[in-house]
Amino acid sequence: MMKKFAGEWNDVASWEKRAAVIKQGIIHGMQLDKMPDHKGNFHPVIRNTRRFDGYIVENIAIESFPGFYITGNLYRPVAENKKYAAVICTHGHWDDGRMMDDTQKLCAVFARMGAVAFALDMIGYGNSAQTTHKMPVAILLQAWNNKRVLEYLISRPDVDSTRIGITGASGGGTQTIMLAALDDRIKASAPVVMVSAHFFGGCQCESGMPVHKSRVHQTNNVEIAALCAPRPMLVVSDGADWTRNTPQIEYPYIKRVYALYNAEHNVENAHFPVEKHDYGYSKRTAVYFFFAHHLGLDIDAIPYENGIKEDFVTLLPKDSLKVFTPEYPIPGDALQGDEAVLEYLGF
User: Fold this and answer.
1) Antiparallel, parallel or unpaired: β 159-169 and 188-192
2) Mind listing the domains of the chain with CATH numbers?
3) Cα–Cα distance for residue pair 307/85, rounded to 1 Å
4) Taking each helix axis from N to C terminus, what angle separates 12-29 and 171-182, rounded to the nearest 10 degrees?
5) Quick check: bond before 230 cis, omega within 30?
């Protein structure tokens, strides 16, 4: 199939013609064009501001659309009155999601390097309990939530809208390639352990709607990732999952697309053949250096001794990272349950 797809383009014009078909296939497949035109206030709820060694952590919720809330944490630099880069941090199908140690370390390092990092829950995970995770339009809700987080970050006075990136592993990698494909305001992306020619995720939130194949198009995650071209992208892969062939299969295809724009220097592959499916230390450090270079972050702000040192990060208990609690419940207008959300959206 990759050879068949490659036969449909050989220059910028023919690739961009195919890219437009793929992008419209995603939009129509997840019915993104049917979402309500909601450009209202984000009504942010920010609680529990805590200052640590070079960074600040806050619990945050913003409105995705009336009655539906995006829950997460905001990690930001200690200094104020300055424009910072920003990174959207998605997560995959791990129980603790944005609250797991790996995510806390990732976001704290970004903040200390000089970025505002927004770690958000997948729907049905963590504090996001208004729907189940495998509800029928999960892929749509997650794409929409990521777009709203992007727009929220752009709206902040401390964020430089020209320096916004996104990263995530596994299912978070799917969210990463989707938002980068759909929105050019993402300036750099780092999908981790997800970009595969033959595996699309297998969850309702990744392939539960016809974004890869319809009556008028067929594609895969390699081409969706390539829609990021010529913007900087780091594809991270490992030796023990569906990304084990990335250096031989997926990455060369993506690099050929970048070559059309003379932008081969903007795409990289960090492959870890003796590692498994995670967002572990080696993978994070590759991403730190990538975003430092392309988003103008200060890598020297992070301790280094034969490798990046993350021991300055204070790991917080899961419950302390929740914005909605028995003491601070979700707003009374919140839609509750899959059926209520589907009815509001007209599905």
Assistant:
1) parallel
2) 2-345 (3.40.50.1820)
3) 23
4) 120
5) yes
**C-alpha pair distances (Å), 69 with each of 13, 145, 332:** 40, 9, 12
Please tell me the distance from the alpha carbon of residue 110 to that of residue 114, in angstroms, as a whole number.
6
Q: Phi/psi at 71 (nearest 5 deg)?
A: -110, 145
> What's the residue count for the chain?
347
Cα 137 to chain centroid distance, Å, stands at 18
Going by C-beta distance under 8 Å and a sequence separation of 6 or more, which residues neighbour residue 306? none
The region that residue 61 occupies, defined by phi over 0 for left and psi between -120 and 50 for alpha, beta otherwise, is beta
Confidence of residue 175 (pLDDT cuts 50, 70, 90): very high
Q: Model's pTM, two decimal places?
A: 0.97
Q: How large is the average pLDDT for residues 199-223?
A: 93
Q: Residue 123: what residue type?
A: I
Query: Which residue type sits at 155?
Result: S
Rounded to a whole number of angstroms, the CA Rg of the chain reads 19
Of residues 256, 268, 269, 265, the one with CA closest to residue 18: 256
* Whole-number pLDDT of residue 80: 78
